[in-house]
Amino acid sequence: MLSEGSSFMKGMVMGGLFCLLLSLLGTFSPISDSKTDSHHHHHVKAASKEELSRRFSDSQVQELNNQVQVYCVIMVQPKTLIYWATVIETWSKHCDKAEFYTSESSKALEAIDLKENDDWARLRKALKHAYENAGDMRWFFVAQPTTFAIIENLKYLILTKDPDEPFYLGKTMKSGELDYVAYDSGIVLSYEALKRLINVFQDESKCPEKGRALWKLSEDKQLAVCLKYTGVFAENGEDAHGKGLFNSRTVDSLIADSIKENPNDVVEGCCSDLAVTFSGMSPNQMHVMMFGVYRLRPYGHDFHDSLVFYPPEGSDND
Amino acid sequence: MKNTTLMFSVGLVTGFVLLHSTLNSLPATKTFSVLLGDVNKRRGVQPDLTGATVHSTWNVPHTVRILCWIVTAPKNLESRTRHVRETWAKHCFKTLYMSSAKSDFPTVGLNVSEGRDNLYWKTIRALQHIHQHHLDEVDWFLKADDDTYVIVENLNYVLSKHDPERPVYFGRRFAPFVSQGYMSGGAGYVLSKEALRRFIEGFTTGKCTHFSPIEDMALGKCMETMKVEAGDSRDVIGRQTFHPFPPENYVVPQLPRPQPWFLNYEYYKRVEGPGCCSDFAVSFHYITAVQMYVLEYLTYHLRPYGYKYRFNPEDKEGSGSTVKPLAALR
Predict the structure, then answer these.
(1) Domain that holds residue A77
(2) Are A186 and A170 in contact (CB under 8 A)?
(3) Looking at the domain assignment, is residue A119 inside a domain?
């Protein structure tokens, strides 16, 4: 009777240990990983207030505030002239430097004419130009004229990130095994990432100027492939709650979805308070965004932010 | 011998199942990530980034109590009014939904049929109801449509400078038909306590009558008759706060263009483009359900971190406003 009991206990212990072992192996096993959790991409979050005050003194934060400068690389074409004009009149005023790169020149608006119709080749040329003319700038934001960006929120995201480290941020998407940053929601590159990219441009086998496949990869995927060769990987920009900061859709579209999915908490369930980009908005909607973001607010709500950004000089729509 | 082996096997299975179910009832990955030192860092709980401080009394010298009465109809409750209730109406001190029929929404039944011809009857009955039941509970009475979006804090700010015992009302001032002007119905208008008393008195004494179904104009005429002042709701640099159309109709820069006189109802000089609208806008009209939440997001949530707004009317720090006042104020 006793021997049976002790056998039972031994069995229990062995069974338990066996279960534990299997579970432990489970967390390491790549098979179970891909079954349970398919997102292997990295997340980048802005530093919280507590983290900032813990790691940096007030004067250091001030330094960071002044140092974080963004060079906006805006890829335009005469066929999207109205959007091009709207970007000039709206959010690009908040870039420390906003440079417009076009496929062909337009009589109406000034830009750096790359004289290039191929999208990928044009992007390469633009990035090369930006790198060579960066001056003191250490962060690069690549956008299309259909993107609306809030540069202050971008600066907040990258504030404590070292631009001498390779950062390639935005809204990450997956294409097979490739993680890439979606073009329409904006692409953020640190100086180091851009430097490595410019270098690998010279390697025709790794990063050809004309896509080698029978079908052409879109420029954003092509960018990811080239960066990957240099050891730079796409990272998803998020707020403290894990909400994506880079959006490929309009506010209206995201809200409409949220009404269906979170009818009792539409706005909270939708988009981040510190969103960096939206995409696909009409020129009129972009003007409304300028008002909505930089002016419209409820009287009496004060924020005690760790950073200070001033309105651009001479702007009449802020 | 067979028995012990059997017991061992039973024990094995029991031990396995027991531990497995225990692990599953705990947040499993967390248990092991704690043990293994969290190799694959997942999203943790982070403190709120926005760091907003909402002052409970704001910066207004005294608390302004506003009763919001929203004109609606049974057919709109699901498609429109529900979203008013989910968004801006929450910021009112008191909210009433006025309809032809009483319901569990809840709506007040006004004993008036729906339809354009009855709009002024609805207003009259609604104000009589409010006067009878709620006069002493609040200081100001805001009328809005079920497709008006209101930023109540900004209405508070406008009204905080005025005395509710004075006969005055505010809104988007229109010029025609009434010599002191009248307030657009769609953009919302707000009566002081004394203004409401005088409106009721007007109907009791017969000085005001239902002479037209155009409710905003007719009410405006009654206000003038009862010597209630049509107030100026613009901000300190002359920008409008109440708007009878959505923001898109105003903020988009336009080339100067001729306006036929009969389209320009504005009492004050019409401004298009970014100078149209105050930072502390009070209302917009013809707002769809989706747009209600969009405006909620833009007003109360989405913001540029660290941004020092250009317009700071009460800024005592001396940096002052760098926005120039509008030249021609009528």
Answers:
(1) 43-295
(2) yes
(3) yes
Q: End-to-end distance of chain A based on CA atoms, in angstroms?
A: 86
Residues with Cβ within 8 Å of B255's Cβ and at least 6 positions away in sequence, in order, are none
pLDDT tens digit sequence for A103-158:
999 999 999 999 999 999 999 999 999 999 999 999 999 999 999 999 999 999 99
Cα A104 from Cα A117, distance rounded (Å)? 8
Give the alpha-carbon dihedral of B145, B150, B153, B154, to 10 degrees.
-110
A-contacting residues in B 10-49 (Cβ below 8 Å): 10-20, 23, 28-29, 32-33, 36, 43, 46-49
Helix (H) / strand (E) element for A144: namely none
CATH of the domain at A209: 3.90.550.50
Chain A residues with beta carbon closer than 8 angstroms to that of B300 = 267, 298, 301
Extract the residue ranges of chain B whose pLDDT is less than 50: 27-61, 317-330
> Is A7 close to B11, i.e. CB distance below 8 A?
yes
Token pair of B249 as six digits:
């109709």
Question: What residues contact residue B223 under an 8 Å CB cut-off, 6+ apart?
Answer: B169, B178, B180, B182, B195, B198, B199, B230
SS (H, E, C) chain B: CHHHHHHHHHHHHHHHHHHHHHHHHCCHHHHHHHHHCCCCCCCCCCCCCCCEEECCCCCCCCCCCEEEEEECCHHHHHHHHHHHHHCHHHHCCEEEEEECCCECCCEEECCCCCCHHHHHHHHHHHHHHHHHHHCCCCCEEEEEECCEEECHHHHHHHHCCCCCCCCEEECCEECCCCCCCEECCCCCEEEEHHHHHHHHHHHHHCCCCCCCCCHHHHHHHHHHHCCCEECCCCCCCCCECECCCCCHHHHCCCCCCCCCCCCCCECCCCCCCHHHECCCCCEEECCCHHHHHHHHHHHHHCCCCCECCCCCCCCCCCCCCCCCCCCCCC
Rounded to two decimals, the ipTM of the complex is 0.85
Q: What is the pTM of this model?
A: 0.82
Chain B residues lying within 8 Å of A278, measured CB to CB:
none
Per CB-CB distance under 8 Å, the chain A contacts of B322 are 311
Q: How does strand B229-230 pair with strand B189-192? A: unpaired
In Å, how far is B293's CA from the nearest CA of chain A? 6
A216 within domain boundaries: yes
From the number of C-beta atoms within 10 Å of its C-beta (0-12, 13-18, 19+), residue B28 rates as: middle
Q: Note whether residue A184 is domain-resident.
A: yes
- A interface mutation test: which of B40, B41, B286, B294 has the most A CBs within 10 A? B294
Comparing alpha-carbon positions, the chain A residue that sits nearest to B296 is A267
* Apex B113 CA angle, B206 and B208, nearest 5: 15
Residues 6+ apart with CB under 8 A from B25: none
Chain segment B13-53, per-residue pLDDT in tens: 888 888 777 766 554 333 333 333 332 333 322 223 344 44
A302 to B55: CB separation less than 8 angstroms, yes or no: yes
In a domain, A10, yes or no: no
Residues 6+ positions from B6 with CB-CB distance below 8 Å: none
What is the spatial distance between Cα B329 and Cα A166, in angstroms, rounded to a whole number? 55
Question: Could you give phi then psi for residue A253, rounded to 5 degrees?
Answer: -65, -40
Total domain count, chain A: 1
Cα angle, residue B278 at apex, residues B276 and B284 outer, rounded to 5°: 80
Mapped onto helix, strand or coil, the DSSP state of residue A240 is coil
